[in-house]
Write a structure and sequence with these properties.
The protein is of the alpha+beta class. The chain has 15 helices and 7 strands. The strands form 2 sheets. A 5-stranded mixed beta sheet has the order 1-2-3-4-5, with helices on one face. The longest helix has 20 residues. The N and C termini lie far apart (94 Å).
């Protein structure tokens, strides 16, 4: 390929070929050249990258040699920088890809929680922003607005951190804007357990509330299971005298079988069969939802406040301990993976403890029956 030092004189005097075209490459800037066609047209060009891509700069003499050389250097510099720059993508586009990936490996409930946090806190302020343009102060501004709700604040922080780490792994950004950012508030585990009087009030209010939410609360009190597990209960999970929860709805991804006491079995026996789920949503074939508003309504009915549905689980465990139930039996009923039997002991101890769990449940139902005096079975 012909190479010479391009000057105004050499450009002006360059002669066209007899056929086709050829390029004179600049000896001082080897990526820059002058292409001359058979008809005498002279065009400045620049070649860049491993694929030797040609980019037209402009025709001579419409632009001068100096102008063409300066523009060629700009093109090379810009493309060199862009070769190492993450692809341009908006927060909205990236979060859609993120949730598509999350649905492949996480539980529906986990993804739903992330989606709720994004929709409520992140999307309104970041939706159309380029991912690479989001700075730490953009995130802290969002987090600072919800500091008055510590749990929600921590959850939003964790969801955003998970997302930006994923974006780094996908090479959408070089660094996370949350790198080095500490959790906004210190986690304080709840210690609330309901007193006997409060538990009595909640039970009676749940009886009055009725199916589906009131019945769910009664089963939470009786079994100590998580609200998501009882809320997603299907008729197919029920055995003759026990319930088996499949891994996909259990927090620790392990199937969990627990016995039913007489009272719990009676409640389930009299629940209406409206679909696959024991507790159906009002307008569709999905499980019952609307936990927050239902809990608030129930609190007003029982005139007992500042408790959560998870506090019923803690109250269940505390009362079982007070009734003399061994800690490892309580843990089995709660389906805890750690605690008394964990690690190597958990691997080798495969005893189901069904008889012991049933005895514990019977003790608890007897105690509860005396407490609410009498338990009126749900119709």
């Amino acid at each position: 390929m012909p190479v010479c030092r391009l000057t105004e004189l050499s450009v002006r005097n360059a002669q066209p070929p007899e056929s086709g075209q050829y390029t004179l490459w600049d000896a001082t800037f080897r990526q820059f050249g002058l292409r001359i066609s058979q008809g005498g047209t002279k065009t400045f060009t620049v070649m860049h990258g491993p694929l030797r891509e040609r980019v037209t700069v402009g025709r001579y003499p419409t632009i001068s040699l100096a102008q063409a050389r300066a523009r060629a250097k700009e093109i090379v510099a810009d493309r060199t920088l862009n070769a190492h720059r993450p692809p341009s993508i908006t927060f909205d586009d990236a979060q859609q890809k993120f949730f598509l990936a999350q649905r492949q490996k996480n539980k529906v409930s986990t993804v739903a929680q992330y989606e709720r946090l994004f929709k409520r806190h992140l999307l309104p302020r970041l939706c159309r922003r380029k991912l690479a343009d989001i700075k730490p102060h953009d995130i802290t501004h969002i987090i600072d607005r919800i500091l008055t709700t510590p749990s929600e604040c921590n959850h939003a922080h964790s969801a955003a951190q998970t997302f930006f780490r994923w974006a780094v792994r996908r090479h959408y950004i070089d660094r996370s804007p949350m790198e080095g950012m500490e959790k906004p508030t210190k986690y304080h585990p709840r210690e609330r357990t309901l007193t006997d009087d409060e538990l009595r009030a909640v039970w009676r209010a749940a009886q009055e509330y009725g199916y589906p939410f009131g019945t769910i609360v009664q089963l939470l009190i009786l079994t100590g299971q998580r609200r998501s597990e009882i809320g997603k209960l299907k008729w197919s999970y029920l055995g003759k005298d026990n319930v088996t929860l499949p891994p996909e709805i259990v927090k620790n991804n392990r199937a969990h079988t627990f016995p039913l006491g007489t009272t719990a079995a009676h409640i389930l026996e009299h629940a209406p069969r409206l679909g696959d789920f024991v507790f159906m949503a009002r307008w569709n074939d999905k499980p019952c939802n609307g936990w927050q508003s239902c809990t608030f309504t129930l609190m007003k009915k029982c005139r007992t406040s500042h408790w959560t549905l998870h506090d019923l689980r803690r109250t269940f465990a505390t009362n079982l301990a007070a009734l003399g139930v061994a800690p490892h039996i309580v843990e089995r009923l709660l389906n805890h993976t750690g605690g008394t039997i964990s690690g190597v002991a958990a691997i080798y101890n495969r005893h189901a403890y069904m008889a012991e769990m049933l005895e514990a449940i019977q003790k608890w139902e007897k105690h509860l029956a005396a407490l609410v005096s009498p338990i009126r079975q749900a119709a």
